[in-house]
Amino acid sequence: MRSICAMRSLLAASTFLRSTASSLRPASRTLPSRLSLSRPRLGAARPVSAAAAESRGGGGSDSGMDDHLVRSGEIHVIVGPMFAGKTTALLRRVQVEAGNGRNVALIKSDKDNRYGLDSVVTHDGTKMACWALPELSSFQDKLGAEAYDKVDVIGIDEAQFFDDLHDFCCKAADRDGKIVVVAGLDGDYKRNKFGSVLDIIPLADSVTKLTARCELCGRRAFFTLRKTRETKTELIGGADVYMPVCRQHYLDGQIVIEATRIVLERSTVIHAMK
């Protein structure tokens, strides 16, 4: 009898708990059958400037992420010793982009006045109009905001002379969606880092290292040998000042140049003492 009473008590308690929980449970809501997670679809590939103009005009994607993807730019770096054809490769790339309907602009340092300031010129005489600037940060102001927005491709020659190369490339490619093609020396006549060219390698979509032909033996030349006694890093000159050389002739040449320098310095001192 006691067990039957105990079982009845448990059943009653269970019924009470179920009814209490039911009264405390919030009313159920009907969930939508499909979550609305759709986002605007990206259209067909277009020139970067068109996408940028559409975005700036307010008629572009509703998603900030999509807008960033459409407007992302590129950075391509061309390096090598002097007389390796860096400027030729730069002009060829820029001309191809222009032939594909893109708006292009060329920049070079105003320090390089060997062939005038209004053109980028190769050693064999090929040339293309350019902007000669002391620093890259002034380019947008010189060109004007509206004209800058329409530029798709920016070519930079003799890039080692621009101290603000890294910041400019970051902004032009990452923020403004430009294709930036950079040509410059990766090393100076001492085979040390030259300017900021190597600093943009981590930013680059591609890096091309060109070689010249050794002026002394005809083998591939990776280095630039300075013929003069001048020791400052930035020394504008052509074949009268520099020559492309292979590793062996770079080492041999440096020995000859150093020995010549020592002899000349001693001669100068002896002459002054007389």
Automatic annotation (TrEMBL):
Top EC class for this record: transferase
One Gene Ontology MF term: metal ion binding
GO biological process, one term: response to UV-C
Stretch list, region Disordered: 28-66
Domain of life: Eukaryota
Catalytic activity annotation: thymidine + ATP = dTMP + ADP + H(+)
Enzyme Commission no: 2.7.1.21
Pfam families associated with the record: TK
Keywords, in A-Z order: ATP-binding, DNA synthesis, Kinase, Metal-binding, Nucleotide-binding, Transferase, Zinc
Bias (Low complexity): 28-55
Protein family: Belongs to the thymidine kinase family.
PANTHER family assigned to the protein according to its UniProt record, in alphabetical order: THYMIDINE KINASE, THYMIDINE KINASE, CYTOSOLIC
Name of the featured protein: Thymidine kinase
Organism: Oryza brachyantha (malo sina)
Gene coding for it: LOC102712703
